[in-house]
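Late entry, written up from scratch paper. The run itself happened at the end of the previous shift, but nothing got recorded in the book at the time, so transcribing now.
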Amino acid sequence: MTMKTGTLTINTPDGKFSAYAAYPDNTPAPAIVVMQEIFGVNKVMRDICDSLARQGFVAVCPDLFWRIQPGIDITDQTEEEWKQAFGYFQAFDVDAGIRDVQATITHVRNMDETTGKVGTVGYCLGGKLAYLSATRTDTDAAVGYYGVGLDALLDEAGNIAVPLMLHIATEDGFVPKDAQKKVHEALDKNTHVTLHDYVGNDHAFARVGGAHYDAEAAKLANGRTATFFNNHLG
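Output as recorded:
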């Protein structure tokens, strides 16, 4: 399946920001909002959108760093870029960011190219936002890859009312074992939540080209994600 791409403009009470969009051949289609890592809307994120579009989804990746600096697009390949990325991460306002995610969901839900069904998927920082999208937005389903800081947000778990899948790297350098344990203890019995552990894998195991990329684990996680969204957004 081929697809076309473009740019959307999302309006909020605080201002407007852009979003990368990829479309499948056949629309209207269910949509997925893709939430970025700390490197901005870069090639990795655009490639994820393109892949989702080939699977039959409208995929939209909003520029969630627009309040810091619009159009950030860096890689994970140099020390200088890592320093920049951590600076953006520290400056990022999570509460404002999740409001921007809601604004994106609302915009996408009302597009002619979509069926009105909208899911969310996020990676790293976006993995945290994916969890929060299940607690604070009207997403129809959410998937988080190696989300950071979830253990500090578990008091919101009672707000989860939609299907949520979390991919957890057991050797995640940014998520200590005790934090992983707290997430499991809080969410294992939640009927809305599915947790998958990837034993031996480090943070960002699904980031193509990344230092910890694991093709087998990425294929497994991405396959689970595809099935999940097909089941819940169809």
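The first helix runs from residue 43 to 54.
(Scratch paper discarded after transcription.)
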